[in-house]
Each structure stands twice: as structure tokens, then as C-alpha cells.
Amino acid sequence: MKLKTVFNYRFLIFILLLVLILESVLRLKFGLGNPVLSQTDSATGYRFQPNQNITRFGRKIIYNQYSQRSDPITSQNPKNTLRILMVGDSVLNGGTLTDQTQTISEQLEAQIKKTGINTEVLNASAGSWGIGNQLGYLQKFGTFASDLLILQIGTHDLIQPTSVGDRVGIDPNYPDRKPFLALQEMFSRYLLPQISLRLHLQPAYPEIPPTLTPEEQFHENLLLLDRILQRDRALPIIVLFTPNRVDVLPNADLPTYKTEFLRFLKTRHISFIDTHLAWSRYPATTTESYFRDVVHLTPAGNSAIAKLLFEQICQRDRLCSL
Question: Which of 106, 143, 169, 318 is the most exposed place for a label (fewest CB within 10 A)?
Fold first, then answer.
């Protein structure tokens, strides 16, 4: 009986040590247990909680006091500084798999700074934000006395409904507080969805069916975009049009609403960067290296976009020598 009791104690101690080791590895090596936190917002639907500075999967992630993936800023533009505000979705944000220095905004800022111009490129973005969410952010916070506004709009955004914050604090992908254990986060956020996928189980948080047809949503989004353009008429604006992977690989294909979208911009004399057109001309192996998945970009893809932005900004405003 005593031997059995000793064995049970040793087994319990072994399990506890194993849990402690796993918990420590997940926290220290992968940053689990300390996720990027979100919050609901009546204007933007949801946004990242302000003032976060964490490391996840070896990547640095910073959000300032205005929920921008940027360093802390002053509300007014510092003297002798070129301030650019970028607004977009997860493509612009980069997500937890993109280091802060490898985002589009940070790479653009670094390129302009090399010319000797003091520059701030602000990154206001969140996953699944649509044009309506961008409008909400600008209505809530303004443009921070920026010299240029860049709106990142992807193929999918043309028919993307305005996202709401119904999943914040419920869906593990949109946490509003830290989990008690890193093991808890690993299971609920990463292992359980994979198990459900392999077993063909119903998703715990299924997509809400759209209330509008794609055609109706597209025209609704044009109205929302027009409100942004009318709101900031005195501010120079560039629209950065980004493609989905299927739009350029394995062969270039014309997105359904692209022609009408660009026509809309031209009639309002809005400058745009057609990344879809530019990348359609590159070798497939080059373009393939730009995508991490069906939508999101690798650091190389972010760098390629930052270069296109840099060239247009310099040529448009004669700010730097190419």
C-alpha cells in the first residue's frame, strides 16, 4: 500500500513538473498566455487595445495609445516631420506572424527616412476591418494632422461588410483579456480549431450570413469610401489596392469589381497604386514569395508594397531623390 502511495505521489509530481515545463516553454519561447488584446468600439466595431508591447512567436508587436500598430505619438504632427496615416485591414497590420519592423508602414517609414526626411508612418488597422471600419476610425480619431492619408483596400474589401465586435471576448482569436494559462490558449486558440477542422465539426463561431448581395455590398462600400473622401478633401489621399493570391497566381485574373472600383477613384481624382497590375507582370516565382497565405503577405511582399508607395510618394510630392 505504501509503495502504491509513493508511486502515486511521484506520478503526480511528474505531471505537475511536466505542466510547469510546458507552460514555461509556451510563455517564454512562443509568447502564449500574453496575446494581443482587442476591445469593442461603437465607432470602429472593434480595435486593438491601446498601449500594448509584447513578443509573440519571436515577433515584436507594439500598439500605441490610439490602437495603431506604431510607436506612441503626439496628437499633433511634430515640427519638420512628414506624417503619413495608413488605414487598412490585416494585410496592412501584418498580424502576429509579422515583426513590427517588417510591416508595410515600418518599411515605408524606413525607406523615406533614408533620404534624410524625418518621417512617421502610422498604422491604423485590424483584421477583417472593412471600408466602414476605416471610416469609423477616422471619424473617431481624425487624421492626426497627417500630410498624407493612405487607404489600403484589398480585393476582398470591395465586398467586405463592415465588421462588428460581436466576437471580442468570446472568440479566442479576439481575446479582451489574458488567459490564465498559456496551455489554455494553446488548446482553445490553436489545437481545438485544428481538431474541429479534421473531424469536420461545425465551427464554434460560424460566419454570420451577409444581409446584402456582393453587388449591393460593393455599392454600399463605395458610398462609405466616398464619405471618407468627402470628409478629408483637403488631405492628399492615395488608395493602395492589394490583390488576393488567386488574383495573380497561378495566372493573373481580373477581380470582379476592380474595373468599376478604379473608375470610381478616377472620377474623383484620387491617386491609387494598383498592386494587382504591378504584380501581374512579375514572374510567378517572385509573386509567390509575396504571399504567406491566400491574402496575407510575407515580409518580402510588404517590402515590395513599401517600395511602390515610396516611389509614388516621392514622384508625386517631390519629397526625396530617387
Answer: 318
> What would the DSSP string read from start to end of 93-125?
H--TTS-GGGSHHHHHHHHHHTTT--EEEEEEE
For 109-134, the pLDDT digits (tens) are: 999 999 999 999 999 999 999 999 99
DSSP character for 189? I
Which residues pair with residue 86 across a beta bridge? Answer: 123, 150
- Please name the residue that has the C-alpha cell 502564449: 32
Measure the CA–CA gap between 173 and 318, rounded to whole angstroms: 42
pLDDT exceeds cutoff 50 at 321 = no
Report which of 147, 142, 143 is spatially closest to residue 79, judged by C-alpha positions.
147
Distance, CA of 99 to CA of 168 (rounded, Å): 23
pLDDT in tens, 39-82: 999 999 999 999 999 999 999 999 999 999 999 999 889 999 99
Rg (the chain; Cα; Å): 22
- Cis peptide leading into residue 250 (ω within 30°): yes
Q: What is the value of pTM for the model shown?
A: 0.94
Residue 242 forms beta bridges with which residues?
Answer: 154
